[in-house]
Every structure is written in C-alpha cells, then in structure tokens.
Amino acid sequence: MTPQTLYHHGSRAVQDLVGVRELADHVGRSVSDGIRPVAAAFLELRPMLVIGCADPAGAVWASLLTGEPGFVRATGPHQISVAGGLRRTDPLAPALAGEGVPVGTIALDPGTRRRVRLNGRARPTPRGLAIETDQVFSNCPKYIQKRGLLPGAMPGRPSAPRRGAKLTGDQRAFVAEADTFFLATVHARGADAGHRGGNPGFVRVPSPYEISWRDYPGNSMFLSLGNLATDPRAGLLFLDWRTGTTLQLTGTARTEYADDGSRTVRFTLSEAVETLGASPWSWTAPEYSPANPGQED
C-alpha cells in the first residue's frame, strides 16, 4: 500500500498543515491490506473489538463487540470472522445486516498497551460477521492506560438501551472522568475506528450537547482528523471498564488549530445511547500511560 492509496485529500491537508507529510509517508509504509501472522495471533486473544460505521440514516456510531478470546479470528490473509455480532438493539445492527458495509475496527490490549486497527468491508454470516480487509496496521502504545482483565464474565444481561438527545448529569460526569474513548469517522472510501486516551479530565463536557478534547500528538497519519476535515460525522464510545456499561454518542465534530500548534476537537451531540452491562468483562483499575500530558495541559 502506498501513501497515495492510503491517504485521501483530507488527511493530506491536515498533514501539510501540521508539517508531517514525510513522517506520515514513512509511517504509512507499515500499513498492509493483509493480516500478518503476528496480527492474527493478537486478534485471536482479544475479548473485545470496537467497530465503527454509518447507520442506514447516515449517523456514525462506534459499537462494542465482545466474546470469549477466539471470537475474533483471521480466516484467511484478507479476512476476519467475528462470532456473535451485535445485539439487535445496537445502533449499528441494521447497518451490519447489509453486504459490503465500510467499517473501521480497533482491537486493544490494555494489558500490554498494544492495538491493531483493521479497516475493510463487512457482511453478515450465519455466525456473526466477516470483514474483508483493506487496511491493517498497528499503532504505538501512547495514551493507552494499562489494565488487567479480571477472570470470568460478569453475570446478567445488558439492559435495554436508554436513548436521549442530550447527556444527563450522570452521563456528563461519566464522560468527564473518562481516561479512554473510541472515535469512529468516515470518508468517501471507507471508515476508521481509533482510540483516544489521557488522564481523567482530558475530555471536557461544557454542556449536555457538547464534548471537547485535546488532540495529542500521535502517529502523524491523521486518519481521524483527515476524515473529519471532509465529513464531520463522528461516533464516540465510552466504556465503564468496571461495570461494562457503554455510552455511545453520535453527532458531528470539527477541529480547531491554535497558533501554538495545539489542536482541540469539538463534538456536537445528536443522540446518546447508554446500555448497562453491555460488556461482560471487568478490568482492574488503570495504570495511566506515562505519555499522558498532565492535567495542567
């Protein structure tokens, strides 16, 4: 895969604005359209996978898929299978019932601070989903909080989703205390799912309809911000790592570039979906990444 096929004009515009085009070209050489053995082995050990795409109405969401390790596995050099699929009440369930749906996915291992991103096209199967890969790559461990998976799935089933057009007081507090969330974005040729992390407080909630965060320096590819430069639709996924509750948000986002080189992303909410116990897994308290900027930043 070449930089010309990897990056569209939105990513190129952001790379040029920040002055990292050459670095982005270097990093982009690690992106493949196939699944290498080390990536296949990594995916097969994961108990969760985040997936992002647009729903039939055009809203972009990020959703959580979970299962016993092995529920995600490579079934060929250019395909993975995901057993089980999404609950029928998930905002993306109708979209993923179709053929050839552009999706972005990210598999995270908090225990080792490793992650693999896999973008492609999904189709339903009798067991769940199959995804044909267009892009497969790893990212650096920056801003990933270290957590350990506690043994055994938690009892009980997910609650019925609670939907709203604004964040409740409890939801605002939950987002403001988060150290991690996942970001889904789209472009004309596909979709992407990424990770954002920092010390608690790095996400700000100035109103029931607004969220903002500093965009910390990363791999210089600017896939997410490049997508937002051409299509403002975005989906955010917040996970309560202790209880398994998820908060899914859809809306639009824009990036502000300051004279000092810092960047702030401002998200405007269209709809929120909260599901208690959406994940059966519970994790230990976090060990914050040494790369996280301090609260004073």
UniProtKB/TrEMBL annotation:
Pfam name, any one: PNPOx_N
Residues covered by the Pyridoxamine 5'-phosphate oxidase N-terminal domain: 169-262
InterPro entries: Pyridox_Oxase_N, Split_barrel_FMN-bd
SUPFAM superfamilies registered for this protein in UniProt: FMN-binding split barrel (SSF50475)
Domain of life: Bacteria
PANTHER family: FAD-BINDING, PUTATIVE (AFU_ORTHOLOGUE AFUA_6G07600)-RELATED
Name under which the protein is recorded: Pyridoxamine 5'-phosphate oxidase family protein
Organism per entry: Streptomyces longisporoflavus
